[in-house]
Design a protein that fits this description.
Distance between the termini: 55 Å
Protein name: DUF2281 domain-containing protein
Low-confidence stretches: none
Structural class: little secondary structure
Oligomer: single chain
Radius of gyration: 26 Å
Helix content: under 10%
Organism: Pedobacter endophyticus
Number of strands: 2
Strand content: 5-15%
């Protein structure tokens, strides 16, 4: 059985908002949903400037596809 319950973590304990749908000892997987924005790096416009280049023939047809044209 797979069930999802909402709750929160506080002082080393997990507190569920509703009663768990099981009565016996059961394995669980816990996912923490944090509000910290520092974990996600912000996009910096122009960060790759000068690090990426395209060849002059970028828009030219590929030789591998000449049989289909």
């Amino acid at each position: 059985m797979l069930a999802t319950e909402k709750g929160y973590y506080e002082k080393g304990q997990i507190i569920l908002k509703e009663k768990a749908p099981v009565e016996s000892k059961t394995e669980i997987i816990v996912t923490f949903l944090t509000d910290e924005k520092s974990q996600v790096s912000k996009r910096i416009p122009g960060a790759f400037e000068g690090k990426i280049s395209l060849p002059d023939d970028f828009n030219e047809p590929l030789d591998d596809l000449k049989d289909y044209m």
